[in-house]
Amino acid sequence: MEGTPANEQIASPRRAPSQQRSRERVERMLAAASALITEQGSDAMRMGEVAERAGVSIGSLYQFFPDKRAIIWALAERYTAESQACISAALANVGDAEGLRRAFSDLVDIYYGLFLAEPVMRDIWSGTQADKALRQLELADSRANAEFLVAVLKRLRPGADPVALETTAFLVWQMGEAAVRLAISVERQEGDRLVAAYKCMALRELLSE
Amino acid sequence: MEGTPANEQIASPRRAPSQQRSRERVERMLAAASALITEQGSDAMRMGEVAERAGVSIGSLYQFFPDKRAIIWALAERYTAESQACISAALANVGDAEGLRRAFSDLVDIYYGLFLAEPVMRDIWSGTQADKALRQLELADSRANAEFLVAVLKRLRPGADPVALETTAFLVWQMGEAAVRLAISVERQEGDRLVAAYKCMALRELLSE
DNA sequence: TCAAAACATGAGTAATCCTCACATTTGCAA
DNA sequence: TTGCAAATGTGAGGATTACTCATGTTTTGA
To answer: What is the per-residue pLDDT for B209?
Structure first.
């Protein structure tokens, strides 16, 4: 009868915690979810277990998160907000080619390190492709980050075609995320080589032309 | 007395159809699964529905496929086998830089076209990141395809470091898959631009150095 | 010819997401 | 303080769905 027509769009908002008590409980729910994802992966994370570990009832959980994906979404949003600030800061003051080279290289290292160190992030973003809503969040995030790159490129190459710059920046950024995801899913040593090769390839694209 | 304490890791084999009758039924099951994935996506595909549409009982379905992922895996294997042959043929006779440029460009176009035209493939591979077993299949496939590239590169640059060539080829190949997946998840026009930009970037990497 | 192996069936099991009717707590105006 | 509406909390149970198994039917091969 009810199709759940595969086209689930985005998580609908349910209720925002307005009192101190509920705000703390929501924090506990997120912490519990994060811990469980770290231990078992988001797929194996059970809503009942999240509630139990947070010390709340299953009903309370659903009071603030309309469904399972909404919790994962909430965690993902935190990470993106955090990293966005970091990226913006790193690229803001780039003035020449050498500066871009250094800033970009650092950024990739930071990103790679983050994925290596943060199981939750790794897990969430590796499921990203399968989830329409998360995929959209990632794309939007990627576009926003690419904009910072575009700004730098425009400064370095004032005469270039803006559309081409947008395309290049977006592609390079997405390739970077793909490269890091690839790198963490193989042996550490090969991963390091792949990331280094990506850097080289991306910088050649960004600095030439 | 049912022990079978075997390690169940990946999709365990259940039973291979040995009679004509069952072979035809398995074909129908795969066809039904493929159709349902096309219509609704692999996530929304229900095992009961697959059985019904194939005109078999749910029990028969599980006779030949140990679980839901096994059907998807089986479909994925068909596509990879097909494309592997295609790639091997395209790269086998490349003898110079210009030949590589043309062959690689064609290959990317074919791959892009395949993803645009084949909803099942698109769906299966977009879920790939989330499924460990499928991810492994994809990585193995990617490595195999990269090998063809490595062979070409070794011919063009006999003196180069083999490990570096492996790394480059594997990275370029994975970037290509990521680029195509990105391209099909945005507007067609932007997708075309991204694929073109990828080609340019990849060829620069493959031909220089 | 006939027993064993392969194949087929579908009601039933277990696991899990999520709802809902009702209980409790909090903020705040009278 | 008191009263009450809104916010919050609860957990048994509804609904869905992947998967099992006891049992029946068809094919094979000696």
So the answer is: 63
